[in-house]
Amino acid sequence: MSQVRYLFDENCNGRIVRGVRRRAHSSSTITAQEAGLQNAADSSILEYAAAEHRVIISHDFRTLKAQQKRASGRTADGRPDLGASGSPGWEVIEDLTLIAEVTSAEEWQGKIVFLPI
Questions:
Q1: pTM for the model
Q2: What DSSP letter does each residue of 33-74 carry, written as one string?
């Protein structure tokens, strides 16, 4: 079982990224900017996440819809995605920390999940 590794899309709140990094010590967390994907097309972000087996965290509905479109005809292909929007930062940090601590990367393959927070 592999650990959950996050890729935060460039539109994510920096406080959430820092909070997850402080709390989820077992997860590897990078931002799109750190991966050299600032202003990259959604398809580039999705391809990077697939190659690196990372869970995408995004507030951008377009990124999530692009992922959904690409995954619709495929089986678990290593491009998982979690969406979170409109929620207080601490709730997102808590949920992402919990996900990193109690689930494996394999559980998120090929899934798109909107966090209900």
A1: 0.77
A2: TTTT-TT--HHHHHHHHHHHT-EEEES-HHHHHHHHHHHTT-
